[in-house]
Amino acid sequence: MLNVGLIGLGKMGKYHLNLYSDIREVKLVGICDANPEVVNELSAKTGVQGYTNYKEMFPYVDAITIAAPTRFHYEIARECLLAGKHLLVEKPITTNYDQARELFDIAISKHLVLHIGHVERFNGAVQEIRKITENPRYVESKRVAQFNPNFKADSIVLDLMIHDIDIVLNLIGSPVKAIQAMGSKVHTELADFATVNIAFENNAIANLHVSRMSQIKERFMTVYEDNALYKLDFTTQDINIYRQGQTQQTISDKELRYKNEFIQERLFVYKENPLKSEIMHFINCVTGKTKRTVTVEHDLLSLNVALKTDELLRKGIYGQVEL
């Protein structure tokens, strides 16, 4: 049985904690957080040994999940990898491309699994749309939520939009040619909403909108191909497909009538908890039952595009940057 540890017991860390408790293939043997009160409370509740120093877990664990704040990821991940531990690190892995590359280099040199927590990759609807789309011409996404002051210091690109960036890079599969970004500050010193256009060398375009100042939560993506439109709901994991039907045109002395019909299909999607699916994939990679679903280069590309986009918004520039 695989012994695992968990570092970071905030909102995301608690999600991991609850799921690890239900997974038979592993034993959660340690939880860690910088706040001793949180550690003591959750340790008493779960019966799992608690720590405030993550290095004290090393002798007892084979693999570790890092759900600590992003600014601590590099230091913690590096120490864990050097100690020979397989890692699942919540996205973004770091806010620095060179640091991310270094972590992957260490993992590769020590034959360790380093998995980045892009949970939407394991959304049933996302997995299905990758199978059925062939040549996306245009992709638009909308990911909006209510403002949460606990995340006011976080970039909306690295916190929210990075999911959609990762998905469109995989769907379109062409090198990025240029990025345009525009956003505005409302509640914080960073952009609270933004619209980003990504142009690809195959002439496909992605338009991504993200906001943390909405009164409702919406997470959609629409993929346009030559003869079909695919509308994906991340929350319900539903996909609706719209295809061109019959077109009729009637011309008379008095009027011109134009009728355009379409065919709507609803795709059956196997729905599972995406985070649980992601954790199971990580476990299966560690135990040798499966291989990574994406390459290291794709992980680094997603981060690089997100960092370039975030850079544009931080500078307050409406313009474009080339990779």
TrEMBL record:
SUPFAM superfamilies: Glyceraldehyde-3-phosphate dehydrogenase-like, C-terminal domain, NAD(P)-binding Rossmann-fold domains
Coiled-coil region list: none
PANTHER family: BILIVERDIN REDUCTASE A
Classification via InterPro entries: Gfo/Idh/MocA-like_OxRdtase_N, Gfo/Idh/MocA_Oxidoreductases, GFO_IDH_MocA-like_dom, NAD(P)-bd_dom_sf
GFO/IDH/MocA-like oxidoreductase domain: residues covered: 126-224
Residue stretches making up the Gfo/Idh/MocA-like oxidoreductase N-terminal domain: 2-118
Protein name: Gfo/Idh/MocA family oxidoreductase
GO molecular function: nucleotide binding
